[in-house]
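Handoff note, outgoing to incoming analyst
You'll be picking up this chain. Sequence as last confirmed:
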Amino acid sequence: SLVARDFCYKLQKLGRYALHDSDSHVQMANVSAARPGDVLFALSYSGASIETVRIAELARKRAVTVISLTGPKQNAIARAADLNLYTIADEEKVRSSAITARDAQLMLTDFLFILLLQRQQDAGDYIADSGDAVTALKLGEK
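Most recent structure output, in case you need it:
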């Protein structure tokens, strides 16, 4: 959820309409209103998180493009996805509160963000506007 929230904020900085909620019931409600042309980004290192599997399956039924970000093993979320992205982490041996999996996912989503920055012609304008808004907030301007 932390990785998804971070990526959602980055997409919003580029003017993209992006939603994140850590509650799987809210996620399911959001997907039930999704339409063809929408994209679901499903993250789960194991690829077996039952809530994420169900959400991805519903998205597929609604003709939503599903992008998975999982570990490299065969898994249910990857099978429900149109596009699969994989990260490598040593979670089974380390199991340190999912630190290695989260860091790998953060790195991949940061790369995706940079790729979008490079390809979206008006990305610089959005980033500048975001910076201006934060500066005004810090200075107490209206």
